[in-house]
Glutamate-1-semialdehyde 2,1-aminomutase
Amino acid sequence: MEILHSINDFNEAKQVIPGGVNSPVRAFGSVGGTPRFIARGKGAYIYDEDDNAYIDFVQSWGPLIFGHADEFVESALTLALKDGLSFGAPTEKETTLVKQIISLANSVEKMRLVSSGTEATMSALRLARAFTNKDDIIKFEGCYHGHSDSLLVSAGSGCATFGTPSSPGVPSDISKHTLVARYNDIDSVKACFEQSKNVACVIIEPLAGNMGFVPADREFLYALRKLCDEHNALFIIDEVMSGFRAGLNGALGIYNIEADLVTYGKVIGGGLPLAAFGGRAEIMDMLSPVGGVYQAGTLSGNPIAVSAGIATLSLIKSKPHLYDELESLAKTLTQGLQNAAQEYEIPLQVDYRGSMFGFFFNAGVVKNFDDAKKSDVAMYAKFHQKMLEKGVYFACSQFETGFICSAMNGAIIEEVIQKARESFKEIHFEG
Ligand SMILES: Cc1ncc(COP(=O)(O)O)c(C=O)c1O
C-alpha cells in the first residue's frame, strides 16, 4: 500500500501543528506508523490522499451513524447553507432540535446547545456545583468527559483518592476537588462520599467508551443513583458518546435510569460541532439569563450544525429497526473477531451495545480501567497495522470504542472478519 501523500502531509503538518494533529489520538502514537490523511469519505469507507480505501470503524469517533456524506444529511445542509452561516440570534431550528432530543431522553426537561462535548460536561459540572452549593465531584478512572480542568484528572496513588492532574497546566487547586473512583465498584464510590461531605455530583459514562468499551453493570448504576440521592449530589450521565449510538434512548433507555443532568454530543450534530446538556427544569433554570450561572457561546446552536442534527435525528426516528440492525452487525463482527482470534490462541474479550463495540487483547473480563490496562497493547498495535494495510480502519488505540454505521452490511462485516483471521494468522506465525 502506497501512503506517500500521507507521509508527506504528516511531515508538513508537524512543522506548523503540534504533533501534526489537532487532537492527540489522531497521531497514531500508541499504534505506530503514519496517520492516514483523509481526502474524503462515502458511506462505510474513507479514502486517504493516496486514494487507498478503508472500511471505517471510527466514523469520526462516533458522530456518523449513517456513514460518510449521507445524502439526506447533505441535502439538509445544502439548504441551510443558503440561508446564512450564523446569526448569534435565536432560530426556530434550535427549539426543533432540542424538542427532538427531549422527546427521546427520559430525564431531560430543558436543554442548552453548545459546540463540543467538553463544553457540555464542563457546563453541567458548573451547574451541579451551583445547584448543590458544593465543590467536589466524583468521576471514574478511565472515563473521559472532555478536557476541562476539573475532568482532566486521574486517580492518585489508589482509587477513591483526591485526583492528581493528568496534564501539566491543570492546577492542583482544581484537581483536588475531583475524587476518582473505580468503575463498576460501588465501594470505591462510598469511600469517596465518606472522604468528602462536599460532593456536588457524580459524573459517569454509562457505557464507557474511552478505556475501550466497558459497559456499566446495571446494579452499579442503580446503586450510584441511590448514593447520589442519599448525599444530595446530582447524578450526571455523560451520553456524549452513547447518546443515539447505543440505542434510540441512549444508555438512559437501555438501563432505564434517570439522571439529574445529561450531556450529549457526537451523533446529535451529525458530524458538525454540536453538543448539549440538559436536565430537570429547576436545575437548568439556574442558567443565565434566568439564573446566575454563566454559560455562553458565539457559535452555540449554530444553524448549520443544528440542521445536520435535525436531519440526523429525523432519519434515526424514521428507521424503527435501525439500532437492532446495527447491533446485529456489531454482534456478528465481535463474535467473528473473537472466533478468529481463538483459532490462533489469541485471547480476545469483546462486547457491544447498539452500534458501539469493543475488543480487548486480554485474557480476563474487563470491568474497569485496571482490567483494561492489563490488555496487550503491543498486540493491538500489530493487529491495527495489519488491518490498516488490508484496508480496515480501526481506532488507533486499544483504549477506544468502535462504531458501526448504517452504510455497513453483512458482506462488509464478513470481509473484515476474514481479514482479521488473516492478520491473526500472520501474527501467530511471526511469533
Ligand atoms: C463520553 C465523552 N464525553 C465528552 C467528550 C468530549 O467531547 P468533545 O471531544 O466533543 O469535546 C467525549 C469525547 O470523546 C466523550 O467520549
The mean pLDDT is 96. The CA atoms of residues 282 and 388 lie 49 Å apart.
